[in-house]
Design goal:
It is a single chain. This protein is of the alpha/beta class. It folds into two domains: 260 residues, 3-Layer(aba) Sandwich (Rossmann fold); 93 residues, Multidrug-efflux Transporter Regulator, Chain: A, Domain 2 (Orthogonal Bundle). Helix content is 33%, strand content 13%. α9 links the parallel β4 and β5.
Amino acid sequence: MKNSKYTRPPLRWAGGKQRILSRLLPHIEGSGRLIEPFVGAGSVFTAAGERDIIINDANADLIEFYQCLKRDVNGYIEAAAIFFTEAHKSVEAYVANRDRFNKSESGVERAALLLYLNKFGFNGLYRVNKRNSFNVPYGHPKKLPEFPRLQLLEMAAKLQKVQIQHGDFTAAIALASAGDVVYCDPPYADASVAKRSFTAYTSDSFSWQQQQQLVDVSHAAVARGATVVISNHDNEVTRALYKGAEIHSFDVRRSVAADGEARTAARELIAVFRPPAVSRSTAGQSIPAKDAVEANIPGSNSNSNAAASTEYFDIFELSEVLGISVAKLRALGREEGWRLPPPANFGSNIGIVRWRAHEVSQWMVETGFYANGEH
């Protein structure tokens, strides 16, 4: 599925999000900053509208490309356009330019060669070996690739208001605070070695430990009030990895395989981790964060006499929050697989039971039980 209304970025990139922007963008809306720790080709931030944006990537060549565009797009265009001629459309020319790229120091020349290799190399891949040498073979384009002048100019204009960083994803996510949205597009995790995804964006592959670390730092960002959105394959491994998140699943066509017939639709997911204060509620109200709830538990050290009505739900309040009748709520509590969290009892003498707001919020996310009892 192509999105013609969104400007295509100048680079091709394995795992680019151009095809799924219409599905992805609604999950990253907000007035706070957008932070992209794995920016890739930049499809997402260029389509994200006017807001403060921070982009980051571990790939130094990619970040140098963005910095060159931001500093002097006209100078960059002049340096890169010379490679988009018939004289450079051959195996011999490509290999020579690839060697030139690997020997080049960081700067405009290397960034210009990156664009050439991206357009003339096989399938637009960026791949390096353990010696950090770019080794993607010639792509044998049938016709001379078009120089993306307009896309470069549009990207440069967008970058003028963007903060560019180079480094590990953890440093970028550490910047997130209340109201920010972090969109993560890490190298994908596969269900088995036999179905291995392309992950050689740098000389160090993305390990399973890093997949878990991403979830850990995401939870920390959510605790600070940020929303974290992560893309990945949809399989049992990632479902377990993103336990507790809102999961949105759909088919998407892959475009990396060498065999065109192998580029079939695959299942993809978007996992959304929201801070409790912005968890979905059919009553149109915010469910308080866990710390705010526990601070008002009777007998605690602070606010012990505060009313609990905004931190806990009795059966009538919970009925309103979930948008269902009390009778249906009682029946729901008995359904296998949909049982509500255990209620808190406020004393055997009065026999009043209430549900902790943050536990209801978590239950809604885990079960997919949202507005008007839809699940």
